[in-house]
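Bumping with the actual sequence this time:
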Amino acid sequence: MKLPSCAPTLVAAALLASLTGASGMSAAQAADARTLPSVNMEATVKAAQIDPRRSDDTLTPGAKADVLLVEQALRDRHLLDAKWVDGYFGSTTVAAFAKFQKSLGFTGLAANGLPGKMSLTGLGAGRFGVTHVIGPGARASVGGVVIDTRTRSMLAEAKRLLGRDLVLLQGSYNRGGDPTSAGTHDGGGVVDISVKGMSSATRTAVVRALRTVGFAAWVRSPDQADWPWHIHATAINDTDLSSQAQHQIGDYYLGLNGLAGRGPDDGPKVTIRTWEEYQRR
């Protein structure tokens, strides 16, 4: 089912009503709601990108308690078997969360298995609150390509650090627009950047700046696939990421190059941070 344009507002209103007087909640019940445990959305989304790419069951640092609350709620809705309630947001939990998103009527990117604000809040109604809320923001046109406003802010900060402009070759939400991208540009948070006129050192400096502000970024060369020289950047924790882009983020955290062959990372080493972590540093 495809949601009508007013659906997000209706869903949000329904979730709000479930926690307010519209549902007959007393003042005492409202006070109880404020004492519920909380789920850190930033940490949970990060785990949902990294854990499915691991070859073992190592937990994402700082996310276990949050993921457990999410998995327990999915279990109690009969969407996740009890054996998977372990604090590890692996592919089984991603699939279960996607089923929950679809049960709310969401489709496409809104049902990609990454916890979004409304779906995570809906899952937690009466069980947990949500803190450190993140979202991609509205779509915007930059240099003739479409990206979301969170990505636009990240690029603006990378440009400031570099002291130079960056020309976008391809943006986001370009479903099927570039067969060489293997679907990474189908969702939000992903851009390709021109390296025309850049030296090797400059290309590396650009990748470093992009990584510093919260992108998984790499220089791509024609030796790797049928594409020209460019820089590929994927915004960590963008909740509109396609599944392929989610996998690139997980691989980046695991020291890999984000390509299908899963080779070693060939970019400059920086402390890996999300955009929100960069802003709080």
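The tokens above came from a reply further down the thread. The two ends are 42 Å apart (CA to CA).
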